[in-house]
């Protein structure tokens, strides 16, 4: 609905905050991130199927691929500030409907939000990240 211009970004953001998402691990403990145009994106996936699409796109073995299950709110409120650089969440980046939650006020804590206007809902859709 959001892609068609009929959805409510605030509702989508609220739902993400309440949802459990899958975060792939890079190595033993680090979460998988991608750097793009000066921002660091934590990769997250809405389902095991979406995660599998990503893993296959990297030509990695799917069996036993490590990931964490985390609430979206925890990613936005704890993990993004913990990056130490400007960043946000990239959801389902290898799938057909990727979504970005950028580092702006109203999405991430103000102390790590980038300067600039507050975006209404702040949710971006489409596009791909190189990871």
Relevant terms:
131 residues, 26% strand, 3 helices, three-stranded antiparallel beta sheet, 24% helix, alpha+beta
Strand order of the largest sheet: 3-4-6-7-8
Uncertain segments: 117-131
Structural class category: alpha+beta
Q: Estimate what percentage of residues fall within beta strands.
A: 25-35%
End-to-end distance: 27 Å
Rg calc:
14 Å
Which series of helices and strands comes N to C?
A: HEEEEHEHEEE
Envelope shape: globular
Number of strands: 8
How would a textbook summarize the main sheet?
5 strands, mixed
Q: How much helical structure, as a percent, in the residues?
A: 10-25%
Task: List strands and helices in order, with pairings.
Layout: H1 9-18, E1 20-26, E2 30-31, E3 33-36, E4 39-44, H2 48-57, E5 67-71, H3 72-82, E6 87-91, E7 99-101, E8 124-125
